[in-house]
Design goal:
Strand order of the largest sheet: 3-2-1-4-7-8-9-10
Distance between the termini: 49 Å
Low-confidence stretches: none
Structural class: alpha/beta
Shape: globular
Helix content: 40-55%
């Protein structure tokens, strides 16, 4: 068996390496020549625990090779981004482009799987696209949708051990996809149809977004009511049937902050709670930026000078280097737009440099800054020593651990 994976990003590369580690020939495809070159040297372009070893061994053993063009195979995995267009409308053009790229290579009995987060009906739409160009293959291909459900920072483990939902366009396609995933997944494989599998991925992340919105809304209420939201949630969670999540400075990443829009864009009247949760979580980021600006103004009035400000964290969640849809990055940008003569220290311990921000080591930032705003609860921040003359804005619960 040979597998071609289209897209070598945060999910595509770990998936390719995992399959290759099971001694299955994998042709990884990416439009970025530098990514292809890096992988073929046995190296990686993203940060993910254990991924470097998996890629190095797979390349060395000749089970993984990267290309800029699709290669003929028996299984094709589409693992490309699905960004937005217009007013948060999902853009499946990358999925279409990936599919168009492999259409000339398809042959009878091949298996085509989409893993990219997609609107309901995308798999069926791609089937129509394929058959419009290759009508002789109609009814002779297997097509399915199988979303990933992994946590950045633990991807290599979860790709193996998490359950997977697998939905084909027909029962034969579902079974063919299940047989494929069984080669490298130890979690349970749940059979359904393509539309349900597509909706399942969107539902999982929308559920998380709604739960986080509740916590973030509580934090806004508690700020006005002069209540410690961290203590409140800790006490409320003593109830045996209550499990409130922790608030933060918003919601980021290419899943939870994005997937709800795939539902609200197609079902706007029916998705009232989901849509409102998105508004709350987006507003929380705006509110955090305004709190930093307010602290800056108050410091000037009190001390008669401009403060130096440390913004602690840029990633969308703790202990990773992923800045996609990051509320912390949005907050930093929002604050810097309003910057005058004050000094800023931008801290992100998981990256060395950034094309927009100058990155400062966290120890230096904590020492020099007058105002310290914790945007992400990175583990490095747990042990920082804070003097009493510092103004602390803890949006991530760093001081409550």
């Amino acid at each position: 068996m040979k597998v071609t994976t289209i897209g070598l990003g945060y999910i595509g590369l770990p998936t390719s390496a995992l399959i290759a580690q099971n001694k299955i020939q994998v042709c990884g495809v990416d439009v970025n020549p530098e990514v292809v070159k890096t992988i073929n040297k046995g190296e990686i372009h993203i940060v993910e625990p254990d991924l470097d070893k998996a890629v190095a061994s797979s390349v060395k053993d000749k089970f993984l090779k990267a290309y800029t063009e699709p290669q003929e195979a028996e299984v094709y995995l589409v693992v490309v981004p699905t960004p937005f267009k217009g007013n948060h409308e999902p853009d499946i053009s990358y999925v279409e482009a990936a599919t168009n790229g492999i259409i000339p290579l398809l042959k009878e009995d091949d298996l085509y799987i989409i893993e990219s987060t997609s609107p309901v009906g995308t798999t069926e739409k791609m089937a129509k696209l394929i058959y419009s160009q290759r009508p002789e293959l109609k009814g002779k291909l297997h097509m399915a949708y199988c979303p990933e459900r992994v946590l950045p920072g633990n991807v290599m483990h979860e790709l193996v051990h998490n359950d997977r939902v697998i939905g084909g366009v027909d029962k034969q396609s579902t079974q063919k996809a299940i047989d494929f995933y069984r080669l490298f997944v130890k979690g349970e494989l749940h059979a359904t149809n393509a539309r349900t599998a597509e909706m399942c991925k969107l539902t999982e992340n929308s559920s998380r977004d709604v739960q986080i919105a509740f916590a973030n809304e509580l934090s806004l209420i508690c700020d006005k009511a002069d209540i410690d939201v961290w203590e409140l949630i800790k006490l409320a969670n003593k109830h045996p049937r209550v499990n409130i999540l922790q608030p933060g400075c918003g919601v980021g990443g290419h899943c939870i902050a994005v997937d709800p829009y795939f539902i609200t864009s197609e079902f706007p009247m029916e998705s009232q709670i989901i849509g409102k949760a998105r508004e709350i979580n987006n507003y929380k980021s705006f509110w955090c930026a305004e709190q930093v600006k307010k602290a800056k103004h108050d410091f000037k009035l009190k001390h008669g000078r401009t403060p130096s400000i440390a913004l602690m964290g840029l990633a969308f969640k703790p202990n990773i280097d992923d800045l996609r849809e990051s509320p912390a990055k949005y907050i930093a940008q929002k604050i810097m737009q309003d910057a005058h003569d004050e000094e800023y220290f931008i801290v992100e311990p998981n990256i060395k440099d950034h094309q927009v921000f100058k990155i400062t080591p966290y120890q230096e930032a904590v020492k020099k800054a007058d105002i310290i705003a914790f945007l992400v609860a990175h583990k490095e921040f747990n042990d920082v020593q804070l003097s009493e003359d510092k103004v602390i804005l803890d949006f991530a619960g760093v001081l409550n651990k």
